[in-house]
Amino acid sequence: MQQEVLFQDLGRQRSYKEIWDYQEKLLKENTDTKALLRAADPAVEAALPSTVHRLLFVEHEPVYTLGKNGKESHVLISAEERQQKQIEYFHINRGGDITFHGPGQLVGYPILDLEKLKPDLGWYLRSLEEVIILTMAEYGLKGERSPGETGVWLDPDQKGRERKICAMGIKCSRWVTMHGFAFNVNTDLGYFSHIVPCGIENKQVTSLQKELGREIPFDEVKEKVKKNFEKVFPIHLVSA
């Protein structure tokens, strides 16, 4: 049975902290609702509010984010240099290591109640990967998974040619998700030279623009990702 997901495009040049706080607010609303439902008398449960699925799209201002178990040593640029280059930095509460967000990159934040879909984090991450793999296929590119490394890659089994095009890292509380994926569309890949992307050494980062040799219409990619999100997950998107 398809479920409704409220979609919001939060636009361009949004600060990371602002959108992180917004995600935390939406997560708390859902976890508070779940706590209320669990404590309620079954006789009145049907009259209580339910959790709300959401999908947020955004382009951030330049920022490095380090996951909760990431290594500070994977940040190769000093605080002074970051300030000069106007790159923000946050140590955050998602899984994964260090990554970059910035202009030309499509960041997606699904706030989903997996208990309504499938309470399985492995399934959830593989499904997010599949959304990007299907989108890449529409551009004639073969997106693939790399064993033990979350995200989407090109040529993951060809040593020296492995290159990541979409990073992923999530948090889940009471089966409600936050954080999500970062898909390099027209991203300036130079920013990745100042970090060890995702904590994985000796592997490259790429973008749709680099692979195809042309700038890709950003709104076109958004629509394809939305369509494939509805194809992979048992949901339909409606504007919030």
Defining key terms:
28% strand; 6 helices; BirA Bifunctional Protein, domain 2; 240 residues; alpha/beta
Q: What would you say this structure looks like, in words?
A:
The protein starts with a strand and ends with a strand. Strand 8 (149-154) and strand 9 form a beta hairpin. Helices cover 30% and strands 28% of the residues. The model has no long low-confidence stretch (mean pLDDT 93). The longest helix is centred in the N-terminal third of the chain and has 24 residues, at 16-39. The protein is α/β, with parallel strands linked by helices and 240 residues long. Helix 4 (121-137) crosses helix 6. The chain has a single domain (3-239), classed as Bira Bifunctional Protein, Domain 2 (BirA Bifunctional Protein, domain 2, 2-Layer Sandwich), CATH 3.30.930. It has 6 helices and 12 strands. Strands 1, 2, 6, 7, 8, 9, 10, 11 and 12 form a 9-stranded mixed beta sheet that branches.
List the helices and strands and how they pair.
Layout: E1 3-9, H1 16-39, E2 53-58, E3 63-66, H2 79-85, E4 88-91, E5 98-101, E6 105-111, H3 114-117, H4 121-137, E7 144-146, E8 149-154, E9 163-173, E10 176-184, E11 204-205, H5 208-212, H6 218-232, E12 235-239
Parallel strand pairs: 1-2, 1-12, 3-4, 9-11
Antiparallel strand pairs: 2-6, 3-5, 6-10, 7-8, 8-9, 9-10
What Rg do the Cα atoms give? 18 Å
Number of helices: 6
Q: How many individual β-strands?
A: 12
Q: What is the general shape? A: globular
CATH superfamily: Bira Bifunctional Protein, Domain 2
Main β sheet profile = 9 strands, mixed
Let me know the average pLDDT: 93
From the N-terminal CA to the C-terminal CA, the straight-line distance is 21 Å
In CATH, the architecture is: 2-Layer Sandwich
Could you say which structural class the secondary elements and strand pairing correspond to? Answer: alpha/beta
Percent of residues in helices comes to 25-40%
How would you describe the oligomerization state of the chains in this entry? single chain
- What order do the SSEs take from the amino end to the carboxyl end, as H and E? EHEEHEEEHHEEEEEHHE
Beta-strand fraction estimate: 25-35%
CATH topology: BirA Bifunctional Protein, domain 2
What's the structural domain tally? 1
